[in-house]
Amino acid sequence: MSSQEIPEDKHLPSEQGDAHHGGVAVADDPFADPGLPVHKPRIQDIDDRAAKRSERTVAMLFTVSMLATIAFIAAYVIIPVDKIVYLFPLGKVSALNFALGMTLGIALFCIGAGAVHWARTLMSDVEVADDRHPIAAPADVKAKVMSDFAAGAEESAIGRRPLIRNTLLGALAMVPLSGLVLLRDLGPLPEEKLRKTVWAKGKLLINQNTGEPLRPEDVQVGSLTFVQPEGLEEGTHEFQTEIAKAAVMIVRIQPDDIKDKRELEWSHDGIVAYSKICTHVGCPISLYEQQTHHVLCPCHQSTFDLSDGARVIFGPAGHALPQLRIGVNGEGFLEALGDFEEPVGPAFWERG
């Protein structure tokens, strides 16, 4: 490069410094600590009215958080799950989801905003520098940490500002209620649903194949017929849920062959009705041995004796099949005389 190509504002090192280190000026310590800037007090540090305004602002944010949590719970209880509303520019949205999202978002945002505003306006903002130290803290360092913590708690003024402290504790205590309410949506409460079916006194026994009510003469000795309660229509919303508990099989046995006294009393002219749901894992029972009056579950080979109270004679099932008490109405049709007296299907831990 020629001397004509060197910019005029550039000079050789020897031209801009002294002879030290070849004419280049070098600082004694290029990484010297510049120190901390002079601390400038905030308006809240010098004006008590400004500090009070900030305190009220923080308390207001925490209070809004509490109100939003209450609104969350109210929305969850009041708004129907299938309600749809139009909101510009979102379009059609679920009213419940929108309300829950907004209220929970406001509750969490106000806690965060209140904490940030509290820290920036009322807590001490003096910068403190400290040297690094080994991980294993000696006793004097531990004492210093506890001292600093106590000083920080004092500087936060949480003890001197009960309005902020109480509203913060209230907001933090109420926000978890949202999670507790959401736990309710894990599924419907079973209540008595596992113990009861749609069978009731006077309900006709409807042949599942023909859809017609049955008369005693329609059931032959040695035959197996599957029935469902009157009024339970296939294709309805609750059909699958209810038929899973109410499915019944009826068998006609010679009355002299029935060994169990209660079974004989609950039958009609040798026609007995038992739950079709296996008491092992709930499989539908479908295999019947005419000579032995045994029914067999095809899933795990649990075997029940229908001539002896449907007791378990083989397999992993834990208890006998529940019996449905039946009779004949004034028109000559088979009808139920009530619901099962014990839960159908597999045992469950609440069962008493």
UniProtKB/TrEMBL annotation:
Q: Which Gene3D superfamilies match?
A: Rieske [2Fe-2S] iron-sulphur domain
Query: One Pfam family of this protein, by short name?
Result: Rieske
Q: Where is the Rieske domain?
A: 245-335
Sequence ranges of Basic and acidic residues compositional bias: 7-21
Q: How does it sit in the membrane?
A: Multi-pass membrane protein
User: In its keyword annotation, does this UniProt entry include Metal-binding?
Assistant: yes
Subcellular localization is given as: Cell membrane
InterPro entries listed in its UniProt record: QcrA_N (IPR045603), Rieske_2Fe-2S (IPR017941), Rieske_2Fe-2S_sf (IPR036922), Rieske_Fe-S_prot (IPR014349)
- Top-rank taxon: Bacteria
Alphabetized UniProt keyword annotations: 2Fe-2S, Cell membrane, Disulfide bond, Electron transport, Iron, Iron-sulfur, Membrane, Metal-binding, Oxidoreductase, Respiratory chain, Transmembrane, Transmembrane helix, Transport
Chain positions covered by the region annotation Disordered: 1-32
Major localization listed first in the record, in broad terms:
membrane
Where are its TM segments located? 58-79, 99-119
Similarity annotation:
Belongs to the Rieske iron-sulfur protein family.
* Biological role stated in the UniProt entry: Iron-sulfur subunit of the cytochrome bc1 complex, an essential component of the respiratory electron transport chain required for ATP synthesis. The bc1 complex catalyzes the oxidation of menaquinol and the reduction of cytochrome c in the respiratory chain. The bc1 complex operates through a Q-cycle mechanism that couples electron transfer to generation of the proton gradient that drives ATP synthesis.
Q: What is this protein called?
A: Cytochrome bc1 complex Rieske iron-sulfur subunit
Which species expresses this protein natively?
Streptomyces toxytricini (Actinomyces toxytricini)
